[in-house]
Amino acid sequence: MINADIESGYCIDRCLPKKTTYFASAPRESTDILYGQIEKVQRAPFVRGLVNTITDMAILLNSKRQIIMANNVFCNVIGLDSSALIGMRPGEALGCKNSSAGPSGCGTSPHCASCGAVLAILKSQKFKSQFTDKCVIYTRDGCELNLYISASEFITEGESFTLLIAKQEK
Predict the structure, then answer these.
(1) Closest by alpha carbon to 157, among 59, 46, 43?
(2) Where are the domains of the chain?
(3) Of the N and C termini of the chain, which has fewer Cβ atoms inside 10 Å?
């Protein structure tokens, strides 16, 4: 019956697996792993101070592009406490309208293939180096954020993270 339904086009959406991404990887870390990563970063005593000395928006991401730490500037710009951001991806935290258009959040919609933020993050993770790009985020409340993005690798206790810095274009 399923084969006949597929051939007739009746249940394409019901019978076939749903796509989880159109661009960047979709999986996220479990809560246990996420909080383990946060503890690992917090054991490096200079990290919080270093991230907070950055005068632009800064977040520390795990390999799945999830926020594990945000500086005060980032929190003030978006109006959320750092603990509320844990596990979000950058576009979700910034209110990007495309972050909800993807099947698995920020980075997974077709629009994300041209996003300077996700491109800089992915290049930095792949090549273990700093990458910069421009990014325009259209928010769900109708704002436009023009950002210069810098993503670079950060390693602590043998685990690789990405430091993302976003500077608003004047």
Answers:
(1) 43
(2) 19-168
(3) C
